[in-house]
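Section 3.1 - Work completed
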Amino acid sequence: MRWTEKELNILKRMFKIEKSKEIEKKLDRTLMSIQKKAQRLGLKKDNYYYFKNIVNKLKKKKFRNNDNFANFISGFVAGEGYFISSSVKGGRKKFIFGISLADIDIKILEKIKDYFKVGHLKTYDKRKPHYHNESTYSVQSIKDILEVIIPFFEMINLQGTHKEEQFKVWKKEVQDYIQARIV
């Protein structure tokens, strides 16, 4: 069956950003037919398509929003946490979510790490004689940031604090970076 001009326009518009199965439903064509026609026309998926799929996967990650410890983490991060990014060699960026405390409170960082099931704990020597050693919980893996940290703070927000604004800016930087790196 020949493709109509209307079908071709729909295919060209949808192929870049939609799953082929969605196009299949819309056009009542087989998946094979859609893929072959797209290939002949030189159509490719847009970066947005890949980014949208990553975001959709993240939204499936569930946290319990009535979890008292999750709410505790939110308040704790509002006071002691950070979301930072920095440039590294080769145009790459490094993203870090972390919490730093005096090492006398390392037990709470261990509980937070156990809750998230990602990240690392590290203790640093005190910077001044009258200080305590410092313990830090951090998550630097982009996969863990995308699959755990961002979904958590999207669901359990930071209650209108400055840290919430910092998180929103950081999340957008992460998303923009991932979208730009998708080939």
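Second construct:
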Amino acid sequence: MAQPTEDDIRRIYRETIDDLFEFVSRRCDGDRALAEDITQEAWLRAVRAWSIDGVPDRPMSWLATVAGRILSNHFRRRVPDRLDDGTGDSIPNDDTGIELAEKRSLVERALSRLPLPQRWLIEAFHYDRRAVADIASATGLSERAVEGRLRRARQGLRREIEADDFDDGEHS
């Protein structure tokens, strides 16, 4: 691949920034600052990598994958806040905060490994709360086709989650 010019990078930035920010925002539980940080970090990595390796054929897919991994790592490392008992001593939280972060990280990793069309369907339906009829209209598919593809996407997500659990040695 040819090395991108500054104009190439600017053009790709303009073409992808809104979609990338939307992609990241859906995964940040309303934390706009986190969404901005993740989006910025993904773009910083893109500029570094693309100046060496060239621009990938599908820049948005590359950016979404990198942003998903950054976010997954963020949630995996995050330690829940400790509760103050009023005496200045902190009380450790139960494991629910850690478990939630681990589950979110697991789902994000699994989502990032799905083909983009399946990932988009799951995000549109579950994260964005879009109706099947709305998705069908946007994609030009019938509602029945959307439901079938959504079912297959969920099955793929389940397989990815189970594979991740298996790889981590967390056999249930």
